[in-house]
Amino acid sequence: MSMQGRHKTGQALMHAILALVAIYTLAPLVFLIFNSFKSNNEIVDSPVSAPSSWSFQYIISAAQQIHFFRAIWITFVITFISVLLLVMVSSLAAWVMVRSKSILGTVLYLGFTAAMLIPFQSLMYPLLDLFEKIGLKNIPGLIFMYGGFGLSMSVFLYHGFIKSVPQSLEEAAIIDGANIFQMFFKVVFPLLKGTTVTVIVLNGMWIWNDYLLPFLVIGNSDGVKTLTLELYFAKLTSGQYGNPWELIFPAVLVTIIPIVILYIFLQKYIVAGVAEGAVKM
User: Fold this and answer.
1) What percentage of the chain's residues is helix, strand, coil (to nearest 5)?
2) CB 178 within 8 A of CB 187
3) Alpha carbons 223 and 21: distance in angstroms, whole number
4) Which runs of E-coded beta strand occur in the chain?
5) Reported pTM
6) pLDDT per residue over 110-123, tens digit each?
7) Residue 281: is its pLDDT beyond 60?
8) Whose CA is closest to 69, among 279, 277, 202, 258?
9) Do 44 and 246 meet the contact criterion of CB atoms below 8 Å apart?
């Protein structure tokens, strides 16, 4: 076989493998979409087939049962403030650690990276007990917890890229009369766009979809539930005698739509941002 023939065969094999991977990746989403338009009996009888009719009644009913608009607003506020806090604190912290060039900066950075290895379960009960004693077992406390747990990875990503930013740019800004905050937010921070988008997407997806921490912190508070909590308690109420699949599938679908849209629009920055933070260390 000629080299050109082997090249074409290799390309065909690669495309076939990528097609299989795409099918494997998209299959759960297709399964979710199909079953979001079915009744409970139709889901049980034919879970992998397309729905007999594409009626939105089950999606509308599920959105009403999980108080979709109220829950999405609460989830958005928690996610937005938590991610904003993470971006501001982690970028500034990473910048100071890189520019300090001291043993303390190195030790702090190693401490942040080591914290990524600590499982949440080992801190769960002492942390909740502490926050309950100081009156922060509520939404502000939940936001504060997210800011703490997401800080290590965010600092790690920012630290790697900031090391590649020429310090001469900052020195030029100082000569032009900029103070330290102007220098960071007008000179350094705009260069961190790829890493910032990565931090936003990774932490945003985690916080938006998280169930355990909101359940432990705010629980079944009246009128104060995230989308995942609304979904859980709606299932618990409706599924006393079985699984209400006609609620679960459409409720999960409307829950993930906002974060999927965000991911689609920002996906091109994710790999680039991770590479910037990891390769340039």
Assistant:
1) 80, 0, 20
2) yes
3) 41
4) none
5) 0.82
6) 898 888 888 888 88
7) no
8) 258
9) no
145: number of Cβ within 10 Å: 22
What is the CA 267 to chain-centroid distance, rounded?
A: 12
pLDDT digits over 6-39, tens only? Answer: 767 878 888 899 999 989 988 988 999 998 888 8
The residue behind tokens 């920012």 is 158
How far from 20 is each of 23, 34, 50, 244, CA to CA, in Å?
5, 20, 20, 32
Tokens 């938006």 locate to: 208
Measuring CA to CA, which residue among 190, 184, 152 is closest to residue 170?
184
**pLDDT tens for residues 67-84?**
888 989 999 999 999 999
- Residues 131-158, mean pLDDT to the nearest whole number: 91
Query: Look-up: residue for tokens 């504060």?
Result: 144
Token pair, residue 135, equals 């009156």
Whole-Å CA distances, 267 to 32, 82, 85, 202: 22, 20, 22, 10
CA distances from 278 to 106, 117, 156, 161 (A): 16, 17, 8, 8
